[in-house]
Design brief:
Layout: H1 6-22, E1 33-35, E2 46-55, E3 65-66, E4 71-73, E5 77-87, H2 93-113, H3 119-122, E6 134-137, H4 142-148, E7 159-169, E8 174-176
Parallel strand pairs: 1-2
Antiparallel strand pairs: 2-5, 3-4, 4-8, 5-7, 6-7
Helix pairs in contact: 1-2
């Protein structure tokens, strides 16, 4: 089951997966792939931006989980994470668009070939989890993409949009309960 750190762990897992597959063939340095927002990217060549988190509407668990003898733990909640992945090549202007497209083409290939996260990628975050997070390319309309690209004085760049789901965050809430310890049956004849 995932703790609250699962959101950061998934972002780091995406970064590591892309570093493992794009460096050094497509991007020279591992530090050029990272989590960032488009308006504050520094020297990032491939930026991964978590732009939205929504509660998952497909998984609703209401059963409480026994925790010891006198406690019940509230069920986990599940979320969908939305990422925008953008290439910012620093090539000469006449080669920049082609370089960005090459980078994004490789990202498409890597994420299609790795549609789920493994225990090695997320470590203990997947232990005892009933669901393995999947990564899926979103099919957004151009006007939706323009709304998401919210960088003043910067034209919209070609980006890829992905959803990672379901992401489980376990509850820390516990309810004290009293167990039945004594039963008295009385039978009466009518």
């Amino acid at each position: 089951m995932g703790s609250y750190t699962i959101i950061a762990e998934i972002g780091n897992a995406i970064v590591q997966l892309l570093r493992d597959n794009l460096v050094p063939g497509i991007i020279i340095n591992t530090e050029n792939i990272g989590l960032c927002i488009p308006s504050d990217r520094g020297d990032i060549v491939l930026g991964i931006n978590l732009y939205d988190i929504r509660e998952n509407q497909d998984i609703v668990i209401t059963d409480m989980i026994p925790k010891g003898v006198n406690q019940l733990k509230y069920p986990s909640s599940f979320y969908d994470l939305y990422y925008m992945i953008t290439a910012y090549s620093s090539s000469d202007i006449k080669f920049r668009a082609a370089e960005d497209q090459k980078i994004l083409g490789k990202v498409l290939q890597v994420l299609k070939d790795n549609p789920t996260f493994t225990a090695e990628q997320l470590g203990s975050e997947l232990t005892n989890s009933r669901f393995v997070p999947k990564i899926e390319l979103l099919q957004l309309e151009n006007d939706e993409k323009m709304k998401l690209w919210n960088v003043p004085d910067t034209p919209c760049k070609l980006s890829l949009y992905y959803k990672v789901y379901p992401v489980e965050i376990e509850s820390n809430r516990v309810k004290e309960v009293k167990r039945v310890v004594d039963v008295d049956f009385t039978i009466q004849e009518a």
